[in-house]
Structures are given as structure tokens and as C-alpha cells.
Design brief:
Elements: E1 5-11, H1 19-36, E2 42-48, E3 51-56, H2 62-73, E4 78-87, H3 91-103, E5 110-117, H4 126-140, E6 145-146, E7 153-159, E8 164-175, E9 184-188, H5 194-204, E10 208-215, H6 223-236, E11 243-248, H7 250-259, H8 265-284, E12 289-290, H9 303-310, E13 317-318, H10 326-336, H11 339-342, H12 364-371, H13 376-386, E14 388-391
Parallel strand pairs: 5-6, 5-7, 9-10, 9-12, 10-11, 12-13
Antiparallel strand pairs: 1-3, 1-4, 2-3, 4-8, 7-8, 11-14
Bound molecules: adenosine-5'-triphosphate (ATP) and magnesium ion (MG).
Length: 401
């Protein structure tokens, strides 16, 4: 049994966090952590001067606390997370907790102590703490050198009002803002590589994300729907998606493909998708649409075509990847953990009824004229009606029927 309680200290960026803003941010992050750490032996989470502290149950192993720490690092709003022990504000206790933390660290040949005193009611300042506790730890690990510049290991020591926290493991977090602190958006989510990344980016800026997936059903199989569900589960691990609407678009694409000038098909499909997404956004009270488009990547992603699709809706359309190239997007998809899933082939509404030479410079009047042939608003109503809802765990999201 460990003498000290295991903790994870959650650090966040404080820039721009002032007054009311700050406590809203902290409360949101605290609630998100609380919900996402349900599978772990967590007793409670508290705010302690500029940090959130996750307290683990007595008997929690190093492995369990570490696993929880790895999850915490990926939760939006977390700038850094440190895994260690809580102890009393007494030098001997801090030393002992430091020894415990260092004993669990991977091999290291040099170290230093980095102390931070949050309350001047503790008489020893941080410089002296570094020296005193550092000296004690050096005595306990005589084979290890003390090194101020670039040591292999940094032992963090944070003294707050009623306690001290000591850790030897500290990892960089994903950063950003806690999901639920910047409103709600509707993300067009295919099973491709790009749109999961664009959704993730919005979630990391604090947006609650609702996905909309258009499948080619009944003209294609439902493979893409399974892949999108797998992708949503990846996003769900860190609370980055609340629900996904699956909309079977196949028959409507077929109608368009039968009579529309072939080169305009893609623009018409996309305008229909945007309109359905906008209708769902109104239902969800979401403030914007989000896509995974990147300028010039494929035929539909030219400035002219983007303008033509945007003209179909009133909501702002965000494209977080517009200036990003494919290799960067792939690297992000790997970081998210969606790349493998997205690399599987699935026919969806994009592969269905594709023309040989899609228009790359669509002109709005011609597009609008071609659209006259179809009962678009009736289709939008039917498609919204036909949408299937899949829910995922997003702590801030208030579910609507
Ligand atoms: P992705 O990798 O995200 O599939 P892409 O490179 O295949 O993108 P497009 O097919 O032109 O590019 O799609 C552009 C964007 O339109 C996607 O990033 C996504 O936001 C949206 N989109 C495309 N297909 C679908 C779909 N079947 N369901 C929902 N949204 C889609
Ligand atoms: Mg795609």
C-alpha cells in the first residue's frame, strides 16, 4: 500500500481566462474530466489554485493512474498533466513522496527539482525548496547526477494552501478549450481521412460536434455507416462528438444523376447535403456547419465550387483544413487514431454516380437552373425525416429527442 494518495495534476493555459470566463472554463473542464474518467478509480476532482487535481482511490496502481493520465492528456482543454502523489507540506514528506515518484520513473541519469509555491503562507520559497528537497533526493539516489539544464528527469513539486503535490511524470496535453465551452456545430462526416480531423479540430476549440453522414444506401451497402460509427467511437473517447445523424442519400443521388448535366452532379449532391445538414443544425440549435475540405484537393474543392455549395445555405460553413495539405492531415488522423479506419474502402454517396468530368468552376446561375428540375425542399424534409440518430457520450451535451 502506498503511503501517499495518487493524484494527477491537470494544468491548463490561463491566457485569456479572466473573471467569470475562467470559472466557467474550469467547471466545464472539471465536469468533462469527471465524466470521461468514469472507468478509472477516481475519488474526486478538485480545483486547486490554477490546476485541477484528480484524486485516485487508495490502492490504485501506478499502471492504472498512468493509464488515466494518458486519457486526461487527450481531453480538450488540458495543456499538461502530471502524475504523482499528494503529501503534507513538510520537507520529509515531500522528500519521501519524491522518492516514491522517482522510483517509478523510467531509467534516468540526471534530475532536478522544480518547485512552485502557490501560497506565501508556506515559509520556504521555491528556490530553497529546489535546493533542500533536491539535496535530499540526491542523497537517496547517489548514482544520479543533479543537473539544472536538460536533466533526464524533472521532479515537480507544487505547494498549495493545504497540501503539496509531487510528480516525476508529466506529459503535454492536447490543449485547446473544453468541449461545451464554444457552442455547437454540425460536422459533415464521411468515412474518409479529412472530416474526422476537421471535427476533432472544432471539438478542440471547445465546440460540441454533431456529425451528419450521408450514406449511399439503398444504392450501396451500409459499410460507410459502420466506419463512421467506428470513427465516432474514437472521437467519443475524449468527448469530441455528441451524436451522428445517418442520412441515406442513394435514391436522391440517383434521381439527380438520371437527369442533371453530368458535370454538375457533384455540386448538386453537395448542395443537397449542405441543406440537409443545415436543417439538422436548426433542429440541434447549432451555429455553423463544418467540412473537411482542403483547397484544390479534389474537383469539388475549388473556390468556385465552394462558393456554389455555400450559396445553398445561410449558416456559416467552417473548413478547418482549408489550408492544410494531405500529409499534415494524415499525421493528425494518426494522432487522433482514426487513420486506420478511414483507410478502409467504403462506397458512400461520394463514390456513387460520379461523373467522368466533374465541373471545377461551377457557375451559380447554371447550378440553380439545373436544380429547378427537382423538388429540393421536399427532398430536404424527407431526408431529415429519414435520418437515423446515433448517440455518443459527450458530457456537456443536453440530449434532444
Ligand atoms: P473526406 O476525407 O473527409 O471524406 P474528401 O477528401 O473525400 O474528404 P470530398 O469527398 O470532396 O473530399 O468531401 C469534402 C467534405 O464533404 C468532407 O470532408 C466532408 O466534410 C463532406 N462529405 C463528403 N462526403 C460525405 C458524406 N458521405 N457524408 C457526410 N459528409 C461528407
Ligand atoms: Mg471522402
Amino acid at each position: 500500500m502506498d503511503k501517499f494518495q495518487r493524484i494527477s495534476l491537470v494544468h491548463y493555459h490561463e491566457i485569456g481566462l479572466k473573471g467569470h470566463n475562467r470559472s466557467t472554463f474550469e467547471m466545464r473542464l472539471l465536469k468533462n474530466l469527471d465524466a470521461l474518467l468514469k472507468p478509472f478509480p477516481v475519488v474526486t476532482i478538485h480545483r486547486i489554485s490554477g490546476r485541477l487535481c484528480v484524486f485516485f482511490r487508495e490502492g490504485t496502481s501506478f499502471e492504472e493512474a498512468n493509464k488515466a493520465t494518458d486519457v486526461i492528456a487527450k481531453i480538450p482543454g488540458v495543456a499538461r498533466v502530471s502524475c504523482g502523489y499528494k503529501c503534507e507540506r513538510v520537507i520529509d514528506e515531500m522528500t519521501e513522496a519524491g522518492i516514491a515518484a522517482m522510483s517509478e520513473a523510467d531509467s534516468f541519469a540526471s534530475f532536478k527539482v522544480q518547485a512552485r509555491r502557490n501560497h506565501t503562507d508556506f515559509p520556504i520559497n521555491s528556490m530553497d525548496l529546489n535546493r533542500i528537497v533536491g539535496g535530499n533526493l540526491s542523497d537517496a539516489f547517489p548514482q544520479v547526477a543533479v543537473k539544472m539544464k536538460n536533466p533526464d528527469l524533472t521532479v515537480g513539486l507544487e505547494v498549495v494552501q493545504n497540501a503539496a503535490y509531487v510528480y516525476a511524470r508529466s506529459i503535454v496535453g492536447i490543449g485547446g478549450l473544453p468541449v461545451g465551452s464554444s457552442g455547437r456545430v454540425v460536422c459533415l462526416l464521411s468515412s474518409g481521412i479529412d472530416s474526422p480531423v476537421s471535427t476533432w479540430k472544432m471539438a478542440r476549440r471547445g465546440a460540441e460536434c454533431i456529425g451528419v453522414h450521408f450514406s449511399g444506401r439503398p444504392q450501396t451497402s451500409d459499410t460507410s455507416e459502420y466506419l463512421v460509427d467506428d470513427i465516432a467511437h474514437v472521437l467519443e473517447r475524449t468527448g469530441c462528438i455528441a451524436r451522428v445523424y445517418v442520412v441515406p442519400l442513394g435514391n436522391y443521388q440517383r434521381e439527380i444523376a438520371l437527369s442533371c448535366p453530368p458535370e454538375l452532379r457533384v455540386v448538386l449532391y453537395r448542395r443537397l447535403m449542405f441543406r440537409v445538414a443545415e436543417a439538422l443544425a436548426h433542429r440541434e440549435r447549432a451555429g455553423a456547419l463544418v467540412t473537411g475540405e482542403s483547397l484544390g484537393q479534389v474537383a469539388s474543392q475549388t473556390l468556385d465550387n465552394i462558393r456554389c455549395t455555400d450559396a445553398a445555405v445561410h449558416l456559416p460553413v467552417f473548413r478547418p483544413l482549408i489550408g492544410t495539405d494531405k500529409l499534415e492531415i494524415i499525421a493528425e488522423a494518426q494522432r487522433l487514431g482514426s487513420f486506420e479506419i478511414s483507410s478502409q474502402d467504403a462506397p458512400d454517396c461520394c463514390t456513387l454516380f460520379m461523373p467522368r468530368n466533374p465541373e471545377t468552376h461551377a457557375k451559380l446561375p447554371l447550378v440553380e437552373e439545373a436544380e429547378q428540375a427537382y423538388p429540393i425542399s421536399q427532398w430536404v424534409e424527407e431526408l431529415v425525416e429519414a435520418a437515423e440518430v446515433h448517440d455518443y457520450a459527450c458530457p456537456s451535451y443536453k440530449r434532444r429527442a
